[in-house]
Amino acid sequence: MKKGFLLLVWLTISLFSCQNNGSIRQGSDRLLAEVKNRKLYLSELEGMFPLGTTPTDSTLIINAYVNRWVKEALILNEAERNLPSDLNIDQLVRDYRASLLRNTYEQVLVEELLDSIVADDELRRFYQKNKEQYELQTPIAKCHFLKVPLPVPELDSVLSWWSKLEEPGILNKLNNYANDYAQAYELRDSSWIRIEQLALELPEGTLTPENAVYKKDAIQEDGTFQYFLRVYEVKNRAEIAPLAYIEDQARKVILHSRKIKILKEKRDDLYDLEMRKNNIKVYTQ
Fold first, then answer.
1. CA-CA distance, 132 to 248, in Å (whole number)?
2. In the predicted model, what is the mean pLDDT of the chain?
3. How many whole angstroms separate alpha carbon 236 and alpha carbon 245?
4. Backbone dihedral region of 52: left (phi > 0), alpha (psi from -120 to 50 degrees) or beta?
5. Model confidence, pTM
Protein backbone atom coordinates (compact mmCIF):
# COMPACT_ATOMS: atom_id res chain seq x y z
CA MET A 1 0.00 0.00 0.00
CA LYS A 2 1.41 3.37 -1.01
CA LYS A 3 2.51 5.79 1.70
CA GLY A 4 0.48 8.65 0.16
CA PHE A 5 -2.70 6.59 0.47
CA LEU A 6 -1.92 5.74 4.08
CA LEU A 7 -1.42 9.39 4.94
CA LEU A 8 -4.72 10.24 3.25
CA VAL A 9 -6.43 7.56 5.30
CA TRP A 10 -4.83 8.90 8.47
CA LEU A 11 -5.90 12.48 7.75
CA THR A 12 -9.45 11.40 7.13
CA ILE A 13 -9.51 9.26 10.28
CA SER A 14 -8.10 12.13 12.32
CA LEU A 15 -10.74 14.50 10.99
CA PHE A 16 -13.59 12.22 11.90
CA SER A 17 -12.06 11.24 15.23
CA CYS A 18 -11.97 14.88 16.25
CA GLN A 19 -15.51 15.39 15.06
CA ASN A 20 -17.02 12.36 16.73
CA ASN A 21 -14.90 11.29 19.68
CA GLY A 22 -13.40 14.48 21.07
CA SER A 23 -16.49 16.63 21.62
CA ILE A 24 -19.21 16.52 24.27
CA ARG A 25 -22.55 17.25 22.65
CA GLN A 26 -25.08 19.47 24.35
CA GLY A 27 -28.69 18.42 24.40
CA SER A 28 -29.62 21.33 22.13
CA ASP A 29 -27.03 20.46 19.46
CA ARG A 30 -28.69 19.37 16.25
CA LEU A 31 -27.71 16.06 14.65
CA LEU A 32 -27.36 16.65 10.90
CA ALA A 33 -26.27 13.28 9.57
CA GLU A 34 -25.29 9.81 10.68
CA VAL A 35 -23.28 7.15 8.85
CA LYS A 36 -23.04 3.96 10.92
CA ASN A 37 -21.24 5.06 14.11
CA ARG A 38 -20.26 8.50 12.84
CA LYS A 39 -22.33 11.57 13.59
CA LEU A 40 -22.26 15.12 12.27
CA TYR A 41 -23.62 17.90 14.49
CA LEU A 42 -24.57 21.45 13.60
CA SER A 43 -22.02 22.86 16.06
CA GLU A 44 -19.23 21.50 13.84
CA LEU A 45 -20.21 24.00 11.13
CA GLU A 46 -19.48 26.94 13.43
CA GLY A 47 -17.70 29.73 11.58
CA MET A 48 -18.95 28.66 8.15
CA PHE A 49 -21.73 31.26 7.99
CA PRO A 50 -20.59 34.80 7.06
CA LEU A 51 -22.20 37.76 8.78
CA GLY A 52 -25.51 38.57 7.12
CA THR A 53 -26.11 35.07 5.74
CA THR A 54 -29.82 34.58 5.05
CA PRO A 55 -31.70 31.50 6.29
CA THR A 56 -31.95 30.30 2.70
CA ASP A 57 -28.21 30.62 2.17
CA SER A 58 -27.54 28.93 5.53
CA THR A 59 -29.65 25.98 4.44
CA LEU A 60 -27.71 25.72 1.17
CA ILE A 61 -24.38 25.79 3.04
CA ILE A 62 -25.54 23.12 5.49
CA ASN A 63 -26.91 20.85 2.77
CA ALA A 64 -23.72 21.11 0.69
CA TYR A 65 -21.52 20.36 3.71
CA VAL A 66 -23.66 17.44 4.81
CA ASN A 67 -23.53 15.95 1.33
CA ARG A 68 -19.72 16.12 1.30
CA TRP A 69 -19.49 14.79 4.84
CA VAL A 70 -21.67 11.77 4.10
CA LYS A 71 -19.61 10.82 1.05
CA GLU A 72 -16.35 11.20 2.98
CA ALA A 73 -17.74 9.13 5.85
CA LEU A 74 -18.69 6.36 3.45
CA ILE A 75 -15.19 6.34 1.92
CA LEU A 76 -13.65 6.38 5.40
CA ASN A 77 -15.69 3.35 6.45
CA GLU A 78 -14.63 1.55 3.31
CA ALA A 79 -10.97 2.47 3.91
CA GLU A 80 -11.08 1.23 7.49
CA ARG A 81 -12.70 -2.01 6.38
CA ASN A 82 -9.93 -2.63 3.85
CA LEU A 83 -6.91 -1.49 5.87
CA PRO A 84 -4.29 -4.18 6.47
CA SER A 85 -4.36 -5.50 10.01
CA ASP A 86 -0.71 -4.59 10.60
CA LEU A 87 -1.13 -0.90 9.68
CA ASN A 88 0.10 1.23 12.59
CA ILE A 89 -2.06 4.34 12.46
CA ASP A 90 -0.55 5.78 15.65
CA GLN A 91 2.94 5.60 14.13
CA LEU A 92 1.70 7.30 10.96
CA VAL A 93 0.18 10.06 13.08
CA ARG A 94 3.44 10.57 15.00
CA ASP A 95 5.54 10.55 11.83
CA TYR A 96 3.25 12.98 10.04
CA ARG A 97 3.08 15.34 13.02
CA ALA A 98 6.88 15.33 13.36
CA SER A 99 7.29 15.99 9.66
CA LEU A 100 4.75 18.81 9.74
CA LEU A 101 6.37 20.48 12.74
CA ARG A 102 9.88 20.19 11.29
CA ASN A 103 8.92 21.47 7.85
CA THR A 104 6.96 24.40 9.28
CA TYR A 105 9.81 25.39 11.59
CA GLU A 106 12.38 25.06 8.82
CA GLN A 107 10.27 27.28 6.57
CA VAL A 108 10.07 29.98 9.27
CA LEU A 109 13.81 29.64 9.92
CA VAL A 110 14.70 30.02 6.25
CA GLU A 111 12.40 33.03 5.85
CA GLU A 112 14.17 34.71 8.77
CA LEU A 113 17.78 33.91 7.84
CA LEU A 114 17.95 33.41 4.08
CA ASP A 115 19.59 36.21 2.12
CA SER A 116 17.64 36.12 -1.15
CA ILE A 117 19.94 38.54 -3.02
CA VAL A 118 22.39 36.90 -5.41
CA ALA A 119 25.10 39.29 -6.52
CA ASP A 120 26.25 39.28 -10.14
CA ASP A 121 29.80 38.24 -9.25
CA GLU A 122 28.51 35.23 -7.26
CA LEU A 123 26.32 34.30 -10.20
CA ARG A 124 29.28 34.47 -12.57
CA ARG A 125 31.44 32.34 -10.26
CA PHE A 126 28.70 29.74 -10.02
CA TYR A 127 28.34 29.72 -13.79
CA GLN A 128 32.06 29.28 -14.42
CA LYS A 129 32.19 26.41 -11.96
CA ASN A 130 29.05 24.62 -13.17
CA LYS A 131 28.46 25.66 -16.77
CA GLU A 132 29.23 22.18 -18.13
CA GLN A 133 25.98 21.05 -16.52
CA TYR A 134 23.98 23.46 -18.67
CA GLU A 135 24.22 21.88 -22.08
CA LEU A 136 21.53 23.11 -24.45
CA GLN A 137 18.82 20.65 -25.45
CA THR A 138 17.52 22.92 -28.20
CA PRO A 139 19.05 25.76 -30.28
CA ILE A 140 18.63 29.32 -28.99
CA ALA A 141 19.20 32.75 -30.48
CA LYS A 142 19.89 36.25 -29.26
CA CYS A 143 17.78 38.52 -31.42
CA HIS A 144 15.43 41.43 -31.82
CA PHE A 145 12.01 40.64 -33.25
CA LEU A 146 8.80 42.49 -34.07
CA LYS A 147 5.51 41.16 -35.50
CA VAL A 148 2.99 43.85 -36.47
CA PRO A 149 -0.43 43.43 -38.11
CA LEU A 150 -0.83 44.95 -41.58
CA PRO A 151 -1.13 47.77 -42.44
CA VAL A 152 1.79 48.71 -40.22
CA PRO A 153 1.17 52.00 -38.34
CA GLU A 154 3.98 54.55 -38.68
CA LEU A 155 5.87 52.21 -41.00
CA ASP A 156 8.47 54.82 -42.01
CA SER A 157 9.36 55.41 -38.36
CA VAL A 158 9.63 51.69 -37.64
CA LEU A 159 11.90 51.14 -40.65
CA SER A 160 14.07 54.04 -39.56
CA TRP A 161 14.34 52.77 -35.99
CA TRP A 162 15.05 49.24 -37.20
CA SER A 163 17.96 50.46 -39.32
CA LYS A 164 19.71 51.98 -36.30
CA LEU A 165 18.92 49.61 -33.43
CA GLU A 166 22.32 50.13 -31.85
CA GLU A 167 21.80 53.85 -31.33
CA PRO A 168 20.89 55.04 -27.79
CA GLY A 169 17.18 55.36 -27.13
CA ILE A 170 16.03 53.47 -30.21
CA LEU A 171 15.05 50.30 -28.34
CA ASN A 172 12.95 52.38 -25.94
CA LYS A 173 11.06 53.85 -28.88
CA LEU A 174 10.53 50.41 -30.38
CA ASN A 175 9.37 49.01 -27.05
CA ASN A 176 6.80 51.77 -26.69
CA TYR A 177 5.67 51.14 -30.24
CA ALA A 178 5.50 47.37 -29.71
CA ASN A 179 3.38 47.78 -26.59
CA ASP A 180 0.84 49.70 -28.67
CA TYR A 181 0.83 47.81 -31.98
CA ALA A 182 2.81 44.55 -32.02
CA GLN A 183 1.26 41.09 -31.98
CA ALA A 184 4.54 39.68 -30.58
CA TYR A 185 8.01 41.06 -29.97
CA GLU A 186 11.38 40.45 -28.33
CA LEU A 187 13.46 43.59 -27.85
CA ARG A 188 15.58 42.88 -24.78
CA ASP A 189 19.29 43.28 -25.43
CA SER A 190 20.58 40.30 -23.47
CA SER A 191 17.65 37.95 -23.93
CA TRP A 192 17.95 34.52 -25.50
CA ILE A 193 14.97 32.68 -26.97
CA ARG A 194 14.46 29.14 -28.21
CA ILE A 195 14.50 29.08 -31.99
CA GLU A 196 11.51 26.74 -31.99
CA GLN A 197 9.55 29.28 -29.96
CA LEU A 198 10.56 32.17 -32.20
CA ALA A 199 9.76 30.18 -35.36
CA LEU A 200 6.14 29.81 -34.22
CA GLU A 201 5.70 33.57 -34.61
CA LEU A 202 7.09 33.61 -38.18
CA PRO A 203 5.78 32.26 -41.49
CA GLU A 204 6.46 28.53 -41.73
CA GLY A 205 9.99 27.73 -42.80
CA THR A 206 11.28 31.26 -42.24
CA LEU A 207 13.45 30.28 -39.29
CA THR A 208 14.76 26.81 -38.50
CA PRO A 209 17.70 25.48 -36.46
CA GLU A 210 19.49 24.93 -39.77
CA ASN A 211 19.07 28.40 -41.28
CA ALA A 212 18.98 30.53 -38.12
CA VAL A 213 22.64 31.43 -38.38
CA TYR A 214 22.03 32.90 -41.86
CA LYS A 215 18.95 34.94 -40.96
CA LYS A 216 20.97 37.91 -39.76
CA ASP A 217 18.44 40.54 -40.77
CA ALA A 218 15.05 40.01 -42.37
CA ILE A 219 11.99 42.17 -43.02
CA GLN A 220 9.07 40.39 -44.67
CA GLU A 221 5.30 40.16 -44.74
CA ASP A 222 2.75 37.44 -45.48
CA GLY A 223 -0.43 39.40 -46.15
CA THR A 224 -1.43 39.47 -42.48
CA PHE A 225 1.66 40.59 -40.59
CA GLN A 226 4.94 42.32 -41.22
CA TYR A 227 7.96 40.75 -39.54
CA PHE A 228 11.19 42.40 -38.43
CA LEU A 229 13.94 39.99 -37.38
CA ARG A 230 17.59 40.53 -36.56
CA VAL A 231 19.63 37.57 -35.26
CA TYR A 232 22.83 38.45 -33.45
CA GLU A 233 24.04 35.09 -32.18
CA VAL A 234 23.01 31.45 -32.27
CA LYS A 235 23.85 28.63 -29.85
CA ASN A 236 23.20 25.16 -31.16
CA ARG A 237 22.04 22.05 -29.37
CA ALA A 238 24.74 20.47 -27.14
CA GLU A 239 26.57 23.81 -26.75
CA ILE A 240 26.93 25.35 -23.29
CA ALA A 241 24.04 27.69 -22.50
CA PRO A 242 25.05 31.32 -21.93
CA LEU A 243 24.66 32.69 -18.43
CA ALA A 244 21.83 35.04 -19.44
CA TYR A 245 19.78 32.07 -20.62
CA ILE A 246 20.06 30.04 -17.39
CA GLU A 247 20.33 32.95 -14.94
CA ASP A 248 16.97 32.36 -13.21
CA GLN A 249 17.69 28.66 -12.85
CA ALA A 250 21.17 29.36 -11.48
CA ARG A 251 19.79 31.80 -8.90
CA LYS A 252 17.35 29.14 -7.67
CA VAL A 253 20.18 26.63 -7.28
CA ILE A 254 22.30 29.14 -5.34
CA LEU A 255 19.39 30.00 -3.03
CA HIS A 256 18.60 26.33 -2.49
CA SER A 257 22.23 25.71 -1.51
CA ARG A 258 22.03 28.59 0.97
CA LYS A 259 18.86 27.08 2.43
CA ILE A 260 20.50 23.68 2.88
CA LYS A 261 23.49 25.32 4.55
CA ILE A 262 21.30 27.29 6.96
CA LEU A 263 19.40 24.19 8.03
CA LYS A 264 22.57 22.11 8.45
CA GLU A 265 24.23 24.80 10.55
CA LYS A 266 21.11 25.10 12.71
CA ARG A 267 21.02 21.35 13.32
CA ASP A 268 24.73 21.26 14.13
CA ASP A 269 24.45 24.24 16.47
CA LEU A 270 21.50 22.70 18.30
CA TYR A 271 23.35 19.43 18.65
CA ASP A 272 26.48 21.09 20.04
CA LEU A 273 24.45 23.23 22.45
CA GLU A 274 22.41 20.36 23.87
CA MET A 275 25.48 18.13 24.12
CA ARG A 276 27.19 20.77 26.25
CA LYS A 277 24.08 20.94 28.44
CA ASN A 278 24.13 17.16 28.77
CA ASN A 279 20.59 16.97 27.40
CA ILE A 280 21.38 14.22 24.91
CA LYS A 281 21.53 10.64 26.01
CA VAL A 282 22.42 7.92 23.55
CA TYR A 283 22.15 4.29 24.60
CA THR A 284 23.86 1.77 22.38
CA GLN A 285 24.52 -1.93 22.84
1. 17
2. 87
3. 13
4. left
5. 0.69
